[in-house]
Amino acid sequence: MRTERNLTRRLDRVFARLDREPERPAHIDVPKMSRHRVVLFTATLAFYVAIVWAIVITSWLVRLDWQVMFFRPYQQWPQIHAFLDYYVVLGQRGPTAVMVAAWLGWRSWRQHTLRPLLTLGASLLLLNITVGAAKYGMGRLGPHYATVIGSNEMGLGGDIFPSGHTANAVVTWGILAYLASTPRARRWLSALSAITALGVGLTTVYLGTHWLSDVLLGWAAGLLILLALPWFEPLIARTEDWLFDLRDRWRARRSRPAAEPALPPVTPVVLKPRSAPPAEQPSPAREPVASTRASRGLAHLAPGPHTTRSERTPVTPVGSRRPPHTDHRVPRGTSQPARPLTGG
If 159 and its partner were Cys, which of 100, 115, 135, 209 is the partner (CB 3.0–4.6 Å)? Predict the structure, then answer.
């Protein structure tokens, strides 16, 4: 019995503690800028700078670029040319962004968060800024537009260094591994995105649209963006909160009933009390009207004292041809007036 009581008390304490704790949102696995990631970012940045320096000083890497260009891989293996023409589309900005955005949009809808789409937008924005600035800043010409054999072709107004197809393939497909929900999925997607980006870079060398050094710098540029994304996670989170707040305000404004038109102000009317009649002129009192039947008298009786029938004035009935007694005249030849007629 004592053991059961102790167990019951412990369970009550646990449930009470759970009731006091607030509900927490679902955990989202966000890659952190760990020491390993910082070391990898630093090494990739050093590799990026080394390639640029090797091209600027026209080192052995420039000679390797010219040797590969003269080798003309598209003539050595023409049977895969048609396939690689379609495969290189996996590095183009527009088609790959649409495909990846469709997948990440579905994930955002399922998870009720904007982080996948915002992360993709931030990575593409960083890609356009960094790679675009490097392209136009160094101005290197491509193999098809080279002018002097053995030169680095720098500063001639080109936009080929680093390779945009390669960097875009690294970032666009690598973002799927970066946003993976489990470590196993992250490993598989990392390997798949690395193979895809490697194939896109080598395809551009096969087609003769890029130098080999362009592809090496494109891989480094894309990897730098993926490694630097954890530094932008706080900004992405603030942007997501701002967008959700904006949505909530818009919904609240839309559900609010329309305001009624304002009516003009009503001027209050002061009612004055009715003044009593002055005491010097009292209102005349009304005579009481008798309402009894006896005081009214009979309607068919004439007013005044009653008379006998013989004394009454004869009444001529309506429609009678006999003239009234006042119009009777005395007949000729007689001296006495005619005898009045009496009823009865």
Answer: 135
